[in-house]
Amino acid sequence: MRADARRNYDRIVVTARDAFAEHGIDIPLDDIAKRAHVGAGTLYRHFPSREALVEAVYRNEVTQLADRAYALRDELAPEEALFVWIREEVRWVTESSGLASTLKAAIEDSSRTFSYCKEELRAAVSSLLAPAQAAGVVRADLEPSDVLRLSHGVGAAATYADAEGAERLLSVVLDGIRA
Fold first, then answer.
1. pLDDT tens digits along 16-41
2. What's the number of domains the chain is made of?
3. HEC sequence for the chain
4. Do 66 and 19 share a structural domain?
5. Dist CA 134 CA 46 (whole Å)
6. Does one domain contain both 37 and 73?
7. Are residues 79 and 12 in the same domain?
8. Is 142 found in the same domain as 68?
9. pLDDT for 141-159, tens place per residue?
10. Are residues 121 and 83 in the same domain?
């Protein structure tokens, strides 16, 4: 993709994410094009359907979470990297719970995007979990899917709690996965 086309693609995805969060995924695509300062033709060239744009936004969200896991793995000690990422995952789920649920609901469970996102997150969590397990700081019987379910569960529950309650829930989970 040419550099200008890539910039337009990225701008549309970021703009769509914000528009979906504000107005839901049924916002007219022409409104998204206007907000992104691109023509409707540019938007439709990159995203021939609403579903394609929704999938791109969801992929982008998941890719950012996965990239953050790899960065933390490279920057921090194993336990700290895993726990910081879990905290960030919980915050993401809490802050974007409506958007994430809407995006996920709009994507078929059998779609390539859904499979890609599951694989991407599991690989990212594995890159954090394996070193923490090897260091003996977290339970050896944990699997990446366990970590994802726990962080999503705490994030979902935290939407109904104040900051202190959310922190308490997270502390219980983090203490529970320690070796």
1. 999 998 888 899 999 999 999 999 99
2. 2
3. CCHHHHHHHHHHHHHHHHHHHHHCCCCCHHHHHHHCCCCHHHHHHHCCCHHHHHHHHHHHHHHHHHHHHHHHHHHCCHHHHHHHHHHHHHHHHHHCHHHHHHHHHHCCCCCHHHHHHHHHHHHHHHHHHHHHHHCCCECCCCCHHHHHHHHHHHHHHHCCCCHHHHHHHHHHHHHHHEC
4. no
5. 43
6. no
7. no
8. yes
9. 999 999 999 998 999 898 8
10. yes
Same domain, 101 and 166: yes
Q: List the domain range (segments joined by +) for residue 151.
A: 50-177
Lowest mean pLDDT segment, chosen from 38-47, 87-96, 109-118: 109-118
pLDDT beyond 70 at 100:
no
